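Lab notebook: predicted structure, single chain.

Context: the supervisor wants predicted structures on file for every construct in the current expression panel, including those that have not yet been purified. This is the next one on the list. No modifications to the sequence; it matches the entry in the shared construct table.
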Amino acid sequence: MRRRLSSQNDEGDWMKGWGDPIELLVNIQPATGQYLSTLYGDKLPRMKSLKYQGDDIVENRDEKAGLCIGVPKDSEPDYTVTSIMTYSDHLNILATRNEGVSMNGSRD
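Prediction complete. Output recorded below exactly as produced.
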């Protein structure tokens, strides 16, 4: 996971980038189901469902964080966290594939 960072350059323009990689152990599955299909429609084939137990991801903080699922950890993330749902012993995370990121992590 790489958190989204915003900083201001010398000219006052806001720059967006990614923080340092944080290694996570997650269970990754295709996003499926009638409820998700109703919510996300045509986007669902480009989405993953992740199960996570730990303290590195927090609801209401890490939405829009980048995930490097099929690319090297230091590259442009190929997925973005869409939603985080907290349960008593784990988090359910939905992630959407980023358009234009190739398998080596660069922008097409």
